[in-house]
Task: structure prediction
Amino acid sequence: MRAYFVIMFSQSCDMNSYMIGTLLQILPGLPYEVHVPIFTFLYLGHEPGAYLTRRERDCVLFTFTIVSVLSSDQVKTFSKNFKSITAKKAVTVELIRAANLFMKTTQLIINLNAVCGFPIPLKFVDGHNYWQGTILQQLYQFLYIKQKHILELFKEVCHCLKLEDREEEKYARPREGFCSLYKFLFVMNCWIELGLFDECMIREIRSQFKKVSDCADVSDSMGTLKI
Result:
C-alpha cells in the first residue's frame, strides 16, 4: 500500500523518479506522525501556485518535524524553553496564509491515504500529531522579526531539545526510546535525502547527528525509527 500511495502522490504533483525512490527508501524508518506533513510539504513545493516563501517554508518544516517527534507534554516544554528566545508571538497575514494553506493541503493527503487503503494509520493523520500554531509563530518570529538565519534557528532548536532532555533526566521520567534531540536530528537527516537543505545546513545537521548518535544507546527501541 505504501508504494501505491507514493506512486499516486508522485503523479499528482509531477515528482521525478529520484524523489519517488528516495521516499520509498526513507519512509519505513520514519515515524508515522511525520508522513502526512512531509507529503503535504512536498506537494506545496511541486504544485504551481501553492507556494511558500523561504521563511514560511523553513518555519513549516521545522514545526512539523519538532512536533512529530515529541509528546504533547514535550511540545509544551519546548515552546516554553523557546519562548525565552522569542518573547512574543509573530502573527502576520503571510504566516496565517501559510498555515491555512498547509493545513488545507493536508486534507488532500489524508484523502489520498484513504483511497490507497490507509498506508498511514488513521490515528496518525490528525493535526495534533504534527502541528502546533504557537511553535510556528515562535519560529517565524525568530527568523522574520529577529532576522536570523535558518542555521541559527537549527542550533537554537537543538539547544532547547537538549534542555528538555536534561529536564527528563533530572526528574528520572520514563522515556520511550532515544532522546528528543536524537529523534529530531534523525528526521532532519532524512530530509537531507529529499534535498530540502543547502550545503551549510547539511554539514551542520550531519555533524550534530553524528555527535548524538555516537552517544546514543542504540540498543534501545525507538518505535519505527531506525539507524
